[in-house]
Description:
single chain; mainly alpha; two-stranded antiparallel ribbon; 3 helices; 58% helix; 7% strand; disordered N terminus
Amino acid sequence: MIDTTTAAGADTEFMETVSYNLPVDLIDLVRDLAEARVAQARKEQRQAKRRGERGPEARKSASAVVREALEAYRGRIEAELRELQA
């Protein structure tokens, strides 16, 4: 595992690269969602270009999918941790 802690863009939030063992079907699902998102963003870019506008950034990010999923469950994770530490 390579541990790289970097600033996330202009944000003050720091991120770290970690390695977890996950089921292959779950990894494929996350990858498929990331690919579908980039395909949609590219479609929107083409439509925006025809209108003379800029579309959304088209960047495939499976990490973003995982971050969003974990963030959605942050409250549950924190609650369980508090319960276990009590």
